[in-house]
Specification:
Blueprint lengths: L2 E4 L6 E3 L1 H12 L3 H9 L3 H6 L6 H12 L6 H10 L1 E3 L1 H13 L1 E6 L3 H10 L1 H7 L3 E3 H4 L6 H11 L6 E5 L2 H9 L3 E4 L2 E2 L2 E2 L1 H12 L5
Helix pairs in contact: 1-5, 4-7, 5-7, 6-8, 6-12, 7-8
């Protein structure tokens, strides 16, 4: 069985934090600077991605505590994140094609809140993936560390030689290749993603059995 892992942000959906932070500021009543300094610069998002707060409720509770703001509901929090996300049609097509060729799964550095809100944020991705959605918080490790890839492979009981991975980050691609996964970096220029190259890489990987 071939396994195809896809990153979420800047791979399946374009992501621009500049559209998210102002809405979080509006919802919480705090300044953008205060939110960014307390939560992101303070390292709390990275800790959440590594699994420190393993449920959406715990994440939202901690976000309110650390930033000193009112506690957001999950739909409120998701509405701010959604503003930063734009689907990449060619990448969704590539995901759909990979699903025809093998098993597809998400492999994303994100906290529990993103995972729980994914049906609100990216319903087309959820429809294709079904239950196969792995996030760093679940695996207790973040890309590009080798541990997350090994744990993801173990989750599906698949050898690295039978796994393909798509991501926008060169560091994440290097981490996957270090454990033997075939990895493709999705590149972009002036906001245009080279999804044609991604699809070609998927076809080449799938066709290795015929060569």
């Amino acid at each position: 069985m071939d396994l195809y892992f896809f990153d979420l942000d800047k791979t399946l959906y374009a992501y621009d934090f500049r559209y998210r932070l102002p809405e979080l500021a509006r919802l919480t009543g705090a300044s953008q600077y205060a939110l960014a300094k307390a939560w992101w610069a303070g390292g709390f998002e990275a800790r959440a991605e590594a699994g420190e707060w393993p449920t959406a409720d715990e994440y939202l509770d901690e976000f309110a505590r650390v930033t000193g703001t009112r506690r957001l509901s999950l739909p409120e929090w998701a509405s701010a994140r959604e503003l930063a996300m734009t689907r990449i049609p060619g990448s969704i097509d590539a995901l759909r094609r990979a699903a025809e060729l093998g098993t597809v799964s998400l492999l994303s550095n994100n906290p529990a809140a993103t995972a729980t809100a994914l049906p609100l944020l990216a319903p087309d991705v959820v429809e294709i993936l079904g239950p196969n959605r792995l996030f760093s918080y679940q695996l207790g490790s973040r890309k590009p560390g080798e541990a997350i890839y090994r744990r993801a492979l173990s989750h599906f009981d698949v050898d690295a030689a039978d796994c393909f991975f798509a991501d926008d980050s060169a560091a994440n691609i290097a981490g996957a290749r270090a454990v033997g996964i075939t990895a493709h970096q999705l590149t972009s220029h002036d906001g245009e993603y080279d999804t044609g190259a991604l699809l070609a890489a998927i076809e080449t990987f799938a066709g290795r059995h015929r060569s």
